[in-house]
Every structure is written in structure tokens, then in C-alpha cells.
């Protein structure tokens, strides 16, 4: 069992137990030097078991990473949810005199080791997140935005009530008259997309309605939308939990000669004001990344400065359903905008 | 005269000429260690004169700093011009596999030395910019967004045609019927605000019109607006070159019982869509920070990777005047939206 990191354990202790030199310990922990992978792994295991806490220079710089297990690189900084989170974290960091560094995805552990940040915000940490494991091993304070998949009692995270929000959208579609509600799912292990799929399946089971689920790639939901609309029993409503889903459904519906909202309802999770002016405007679920990131960044700074953060465990942040024309098939008083 | 930085000059060369140890050279250049300020200055001067180029670890991280000489800290990351520039730089950096760190203003040189970025974007570099001098001395590649005030032939910068853009706004106000156009100026030395004031004075002189100029604080233009409106000879149009000017003029006009656009025209430089929905909507000059920052970041990456950048010297980037109700006092065909 790993011990809680302690400043009393020295690099010499780790070297003695692992049976290597202090230089090798240093290199192994900093992803530097030349050594076999098994030696590197052994040193890291011993360091973790002893609770070794490396001395770190205070750089007054915080890091932000999106470590979800998407294949290779994807331009998350241009997606409104993430660009708003980055802007919010930067603003809060600056208020407290900290800088903020945002790395691209698909960055190796070496890069994180070189960075020497005082603390780290991790967004959508997936199963077996190696960046998370490495940061915790090195004693770098971490606050999560979106629950880490394998959350431990010491973890601090800020997240939405994903289950409640998804139920809100599905109920809204049902109240608008939909009887065959489909979900665009994803093939990543992060909590968000998994909770969306689990909640959807439960909701369908409770109501005895069919599960119409297709897995999409975040960058391009179009093929998954096409599969849904080409079914023998196509859906009469689609909810997509990523930003680009709304545009993809609008476009595919046009191709299939379907009118929105008359033939097909559509809603998606998005922070983009672009959906106010599409034809028709699209109902969106807002996760308020600005507010959630503000809370997470303030908690991280409290941790970094050695204070006791105002919370332990999770903070649940509100969502908002913005009902627009794309889901308004029935009289307005049937709609809830929780 | 400083020589062009060269990898052939060693730290030992600097130590010999400066008459100090190599450790002292290292400490002086990295803002570390204890020594008198005069020793530190001497070592840095010698390093610069010899063209010493410190070996740097490649971190694949770029930096972005706003070094304009505003007093202490101001939350630039929440101003649309800068938040859009940060978003654009982050996206372009990520496309090329780089991270991006954004520091708050009022950061000491020590922090920049610790950062070890591969290259740096500097926005609105003022007169005597110490961060700029330090980066150049340490051989860190720099690309400027907004001309550095004391530009040298080797500088690479991306900027708007500030003079042309300001003349466009002033002509627009004049064509809309204004005869007493005022400018909100600033007390910083960066190129942008100085060029705004110089162009305004020239434009007034050419037309024999009065100079109605008040200096504002960027964070709160309200006192300067109040001084303009309280004059015995108040203006009938105001141009504010910062984002918050439009809101400040709308609010002050209400307080003075002035109707916009009937009694007072107002335009400001802004990237904020909020001015589409104010009462009335406000005419804005857009400097397109997204496009300008994309060009600057791509040039910086070319420099960092040892290539010859596609340009040397300056790149002039377009502006757009978005004419709205706040300057529409006369028939629409009198308006130009260059």
C-alpha cells in the first residue's frame, strides 16, 4: 500500500530500499537518464510505497490538462467547454498571482515532469490515468474537473450532477412528445460520457422504452448520427452530450429530409452561443465550465498554499437546460427548463 | 554594442571577461544566488556584449505575456481582446504539440527565468520593457503582438494598421455629423495607445478641429468620460480605444441626460459581442486578435524550431469597423464600414 506522501522520507531512503544510487532515483522520478524500464518502474514503486515527497521549486505556475483517453491529439482548446474552462482558470490564477500552463493532449510523462508546476487541474481523468498517477506519486496537488473515474477518498473534484442533468434532458424530450429517444454515446472511459450512457440506459429501462445508442467520435459525430437515422426503427429525438452533436444532427436531418422539430427533436450539451442562431435554434444543456473551473482553481490554490481547502471530496455544480425551437413540438407549458 | 547571440560564446568566456566565477555567471543570468545588483548587472552586460547564448532545455512550452506598463495587476485574461488572443495562441500551440503558459502581469524577472519556455509571445511591449530585454539577452525567441515601442530591425511583430484604423473611426464619426470628436487616451507607453493619441491629434490638426482628450485608466474609464462630458465645450462624439469605453460612455450619457446617437455618438475598440445588444448597440472597431495571434504563434514556432520565419520585421493585420446604432445619426449611405 502506498503511504501518504511525507517530507520525512528522503531520496536516500528510496535509493537504499530500491538498491540503486541516489542519481538513479532522481533520474527515474524525473523521467530522465538511461535505465531499463524495470528499474524505473521499481524505483517509482518504492518511492510510492515509502511515501517519498520530492522537494519542488515553487514556480507559482499552475497546470491544466485534459487527460481523457481520446486517441492522439484533438483540438480541445477550440471547443467552447474547454476554451471557457481555460479562460476561467487563467483569470482565477492571475487574480492570485499565478500563471497557468495548458498542455496539448497526448503529451508524455516526461513533459509533465519537466514542467514543475505547483499544482494541476485535471479535466475528465479517465481509467488508469498515467498523468494523474505520476502527479500523485510526485506529491503535486491535483484538483479534478469532472470526477476521476477511480476516485479515492482524498480526491478533490468539481463536477456537475451529470445523472440529474441527463435525466432532465431526457424528460424534457419525452414531455415534448418523443417516444424513441436516442443517445449519442462515446468510447472513452471518462466519468462524464460513461454516466451519460448509464443514466440513459436506466431511464429507458424504467420506462420500458427502446435503447437507441450509437457510439461517436467526439471530433466527428456525423457517422454515428447517420447510423441512428438509417435504422429501420429510427429515433424521433436525439441527445448528444458533446458540443458538435447539434450541428451534426441538423445537417444529417436535412440529408434525410427530416424536419426539426416536427419529425425529429434534437438537444446537445454545449456552451456555444452559435446554437442560438442555427435553423432552427438548438436546445442546449450548459455545464457552466466557467463557474466549475473557478471553484476548482480556487480549491487548488488553497491546496498549493498549504491551507485546508474549504471542501474535501466532491463539489457538485449546477447545470442549465436552455430550451429552444429544436425541442418545442408541443405547447410551451409542457416544457420544463430546470 | 551587443553582438548577435552565438552558440560559440561560452559561460567561461563571460566569466573571464567579467572577472567572476562561472557559478556567478550562471546565477546572474538566472536571477538566482546572492550578489550585489552591480555584479548582476555587470555580468548581464558582458553576456550581452559578447553575444552569449545560454543552452536551454527544450520544454516544448511557449509563453505569452502582456508586459504593457499598467500599474500592478489587472485582469487582462477577462478582457475579450486578450482572452481571444490566449485562446488562439493555445489552439495553435497545441496543433504543433506545444503547451502555452500565460503569466499574470506584474511578474518579476525571476519568474520568467524559472519558466524555461522555448519561445515567447509579448503583447503590447512598452518603453524599456525589462521582460523583453531579459528574454533577448537570454536568447529566447520572441514574437511581438503589437509593435514593441523601441522596435529593432531583428524584431518580428504582428500588429494592426493602428493609424489607418483610428482614422477610419474618426472619419466615420465625422461623416455621421460629429464636429467635436473626443478621444479617451491612456497613460501607458505601449505603441497602441500612443499611436491612437498621435493619430487623433494629427487628424484634429489637419481639419482645424479641437483636441478633446482625456487620459483614462483601462480598468475604469468612467472618470475620464465624466471629465469629457463635464467640459464647458463637451464633445458630440467619443472614441474609446479600450473595450470598456463603450459601456462607460453609455452609462455616463444616461447620467447626463444625453441621448445616443442623437446628442452623442460613441464608438470603441472591442471584440465583445455584448455591444450587439446594448441600448443602443455600440459601433466597435475589431482588431481581430484571433487572426493576429495565430500568425504570431506560427511565426514563433518557426523561430523556435530553427527555421527561417516566413517574414522578417512586421506583419500588418486587418481591422474591421462594425457600424451600429450608436453612430448612426444620418442616412445610412453616408456611412463607410471600411
Cα end-to-end separation of chain A? 44 Å
Largest sheet of chain A: 6 strands, parallel
How many structurally independent domains of chain A? 3
Mean pLDDT of chain A: 87
Secondary-structure-derived class of chain A? alpha/beta
Query: CATH topology of the largest domain in chain A, anyone?
Result: Rossmann fold
What coarse outline of chain A follows from CA principal-axis ratios? elongated
What is the quaternary state of this protein?
homodimer
Order of H and E elements of chain A: HHHEHEHEHEEHEHEHEHEEHEE
Helix content of chain A: 25-40%
Chain-wise SSE layout:
Two copies of one chain form a homodimer.
Chain A: H1 11-18, H2 22-29, H3 37-50, E1 61-66, H4 80-95, E2 99-102, H5 109-115, E3 119-123, H6 130-137, E4 142-145, E5 156-160, H7 162-175, E6 181-186, H8 191-207, E7 212-216, H9 222-229, E8 237-240, H10 245-255, E9 265-269, E10 283-286, H11 289-304, E11 313-317, E12 320-322
Parallel strand pairs in A: 1-2, 1-3, 3-4, 4-5, 5-11, 6-7, 6-8, 8-9, 9-10
Antiparallel strand pairs in A: 10-12
